[in-house]
Amino acid sequence: MIPVENFLILAAVLFAIGVLGVVLRRNALIVLMSIELMLNAANLTLLAYGRARHDATFQALAFLVVAVAAAEAAVGLAIVVGIFRNRHSTNLDELTLMKH
Amino acid sequence: MGERIAFWVCAVMIIGGALMTISRKNTVTAVMSLVMTFFGLAAIYTLLSAHFLAAIQILVYAGAIMTLFVFVVMVLNRDEVAPWALRGIVGKAIGIGALAYTIALTVLLLGSTPGFLASTRSYKSGPPPEGWGGVADVGNILFTKYLFAFEAISLLLLVAVIGAVVVARIPRHVEVAAPADQKPAAGQGGHG
Fold it and tell me: Is B142 on the interface with A (CB under 8 A)?
């Protein structure tokens, strides 16, 4: 049986990659995908702790996280399409309308 | 032994897919790498004996969310000019450094003392009992103790669906994407 630490380290690395994607990329689609990566890392942590404690409550929580992630992806992509329709760009650095 | 090999194969698949996702210029390649990551994660969930969550992972992520992303990529259909966001690089470098420090500390703590978590009281060693983590187990908890959360999440999904349609549809009284202000090299975009 693989110790729970391995799963936690894997989740930490995955979360770090997601943060890098959000911080370093300009494309709104890639940023949304990186957010999905981070949500998955959180789910992996939940399930690792759930198995370590033999508690299925963690799995119910992970199920709810998956549902929230699906809702977030749908609304986020709709917003990206709406922004693209108005401004013909998905470059996040150009969306500075509320800054000035 | 076989479990160990499976874990490392899945770990390489997950990390490689995630790195490809954030580094590719082509958005379709990024989506497909993301799908690779999701499949690796589903396999890892099976290793954690969370079979229900593994099935959900493939159905929801590799099925629904991936399709959504591919459709939006097709609608936008725009090449990137400069993919890397380098504005405000100093603050970002500090943030990334702090994150790397935290991750390194976590990895060092967890990696240097094996059994660190298992030594505390609430963690059980050994595999979970037969049938743990199946549909029956998770459903029992969802429909008794967390029934309100389950109903609330279904309402949230309904709201999200309606909101997505309202935000993304083309209003009838507004003209669609006046071609005059499009850049000449832009090609065909926005004909979803």
Answer: yes
Enter the pTM of the model.
0.83
In this prediction the ipTM stands at 0.91
| Pairwise CB contact (< 8 Å): A62 & B50 | yes
- For residue A17, give the amino acid letter: I
Contact (CB, 8 A) for A10 and B112: no
Radius of gyration of chain B (CA): 22
Spatial separation of the C-alpha atoms in residues B123 and A1, rounded to whole Å: 14
Tell me: the pLDDT tens digits for A26-77? 888 899 999 999 999 999 999 998 888 888 889 999 999 999 999 999 999 9
Which DSSP state fits B63?
I
Report chain B residues whose CB lies below 8 A from the CB of A87.
none
pLDDT at residue B175, as a whole number: 57
Q: Do B92 and A33 touch (CB under 8 A)?
A: no
Q: Sign of the CA dihedral A38, A33, B22, B9?
A: positive
Alpha carbons B24 and B63: distance in angstroms, whole number: 21
Q: Find where tokens 């037969």 sit.
A: B130
Query: Which run of H or E residues covers position B85?
Result: none
| Alpha-carbon separation of residue B165 from A78, B90, B152, B171 (angstroms) | 7, 39, 20, 11
Check whether B82 has a pLDDT greater than 60.
Answer: yes
- Flag whether pLDDT at B141 surpasses 70: yes
CATH number attached to the domain at A4-88: 1.10.287.3510
B88 to A93, B85, B94: CA distances (angstroms): 11, 9, 11
Q: A40 vs B38: CB contact, 8 Å cut-off?
A: yes
Write down the domain spans for chain A: 4-88
